[in-house]
């Protein structure tokens, strides 16, 4: 298979607020391939455990819930929908309450191999359906899909990440809003770093620093890496 005909698997990792989800969705849309938000799977499992009153500190019980998680996740980058046991939790899994708890689930080492295998299976199914996939998270370039055709680490300064998340969640990037965002960005990254390496690019992984790029420039920078590594051009003009 030549690089042009090889399935277009793109793995993107990075810390909170680096732009992984929004940039990955736009890149998948421009390339006409599917999208997998692996963080949404950790969030959906957290929601499911809270809903069923499973103690997040009970590692074995959370792992059993992970193996049985009745999750439906859309692959369409323009219409993301997360459904657990028939309940649409697309918005709720982004709530501050779930953001505050999700690292307890993501750092459970009995849970990770279960979700990582589910993510590999999902990547294969999306690739079979659309010819490729953009999968993003914390360990996609290193553990879930180290053989992906294109592997990228999206980074941004702490300041830029706090400002972005603050504007997104609180509609403002003033001092108070930023202070209220620190837990969901910095504390969570610190906790999540215990189980994944997503601040330094692994061998063969290309770093794209978006600190001084706006959103559209970030999308173009990622598409340029895809074109240089895989020889794929995007299908639409911006
Ligand atoms: N390069 C960028 N410049 C400015 N804002 C950005 C950029 N990339 C993403 N954003 C915005 O920052 C917020 C967080 O981005 P998101 O994609 O959710 O990050 P992550 O998935 O890495 O946590 C979103 O509101 C998004 O639109
Ligand atoms: N592959 C992944 C994806 C996410 N996680 C963890 C890290 C985060 O705390 C949660 C939620 O991830 P998500 O990507 O939604 O978080 P952000 O949008 O970057 O704030 O899951 C992980 O450990 N491994």
UniProtKB/TrEMBL annotation:
One of its GO terms (cellular component) is cytoplasm. SUPFAM superfamilies: P-loop containing nucleoside triphosphate hydrolases. GO terms for biological process: pyrimidine nucleotide metabolic process. Residues 10-226 form the Cytidylate kinase domain. Signal peptide: none annotated. Keywords: ATP-binding, Cytoplasm, Kinase, Nucleotide-binding, Transferase. It is found in: Cytoplasm. Its EC number is 2.7.4.25. It is an enzyme of class 2 (transferase). GO terms for molecular function: ATP binding; CMP kinase activity; dCMP kinase activity. Pfam families: Cytidylate_kin. ATP binds at residues 14-22. Belongs to the cytidylate kinase family. Type 1 subfamily. This is Cytidylate kinase. The gene is cmk.
């Amino acid at each position: 298979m030549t690089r042009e005909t090889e399935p277009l698997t793109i793995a993107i990792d990075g810390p909170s607020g680096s732009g992984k989800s929004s940039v990955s969705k736009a890149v998948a849309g421009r390339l006409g391939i599917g999208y997998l938000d692996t963080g949404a799977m950790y969030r959906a499992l957290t929601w499911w455990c809270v809903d069923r009153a499973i103690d997040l500190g009970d590692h074995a019980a959370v792992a059993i819930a992970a193996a049985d998680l009745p999750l439906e996740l859309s692959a369409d980058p323009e219409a993301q929908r997360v459904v657990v046991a028939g309940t649409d939790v697309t918005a709720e899994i982004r709530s501050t309450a779930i953001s505050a708890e999700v690292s307890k689930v993501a750092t459970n080492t009995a849970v990770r191999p279960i979700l990582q295998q589910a993510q590999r299976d999902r990547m294969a199914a999306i690739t079979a359906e659309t010819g490729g996939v953009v999968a993003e998270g914390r360990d996609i370039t290193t553990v879930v899909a180290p053989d992906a055709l294109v592997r990228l680490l999206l980074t941004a300064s702490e300041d830029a990440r706090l400002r972005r998340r603050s504007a997104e969640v609180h509609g403002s990037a003033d001092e108070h809003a930023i202070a209220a965002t620190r837990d969901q960005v910095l504390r969570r990254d610190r906790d999540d770093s215990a189980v994944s390496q997503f601040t330094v690019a692994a061998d063969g992984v290309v770093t794209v620093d978006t600190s001084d790029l706006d959103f559209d420039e970030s999308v173009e920078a990622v598409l340029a890496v895809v074109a240089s590594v895989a020889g794929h051009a995007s299908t639409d003009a911006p």
